[in-house]
Amino acid sequence: MAQGFVHDDIVLEVVMVVGCIATDARCAILLANSGLIQALAEILEDQSNNDEIVLQVIYSMYCLVRHSETREVILNEL
């Protein structure tokens, strides 16, 4: 397995965990205030050719936007 694929797999798994954590409103607040929004945006830009990562980043952002407490944070950071 090439080294880039291992890195991409790790990034994908981390983004998937973020999406799962972001479904809980209390956890979403912590994630939104941690600077993670900007990191997700950078991953989305850097990995725009990787459909799996793009899908999971969008899902993670969707989970964060669903909560009114984190919506404003996201809209102000992006």
Keywords:
globular; mainly alpha; 78 residues; single chain
Say how many strands there are. Answer: 0
The largest pleated sheet is described as: none
- Helices, by number, come to 5
| Low-confidence regions | none
What is the rounded distance between the termini?
A: 35 Å
The share of residues in extended strands comes to under 5%
Q: Helical amount among residues, as a percent range?
A: over 70%
Give the ordered list of helices and strands.
Answer: HHHHH
What Rg do the Cα atoms give? 12 Å
The pLDDT mean sits at: 87
- General form: globular
Class derived from helix and strand content? mainly alpha
Describe the structure.
The chain is built from 5 helices and no strands. The chain has 78 residues and is an all-alpha fold. The model has no long low-confidence stretch (mean pLDDT 87). The chain has helices spanning 3-21, 25-32, 36-46, 51-65, 68-77.
The gist of it:
The chain is 81% helix and 0% strand. It is mainly alpha-helical and 78 residues long.
Topology:
Blueprint: H1 3-21, H2 25-32, H3 36-46, H4 51-65, H5 68-77
Helix pairs in contact: 1-4, 2-5, 3-4
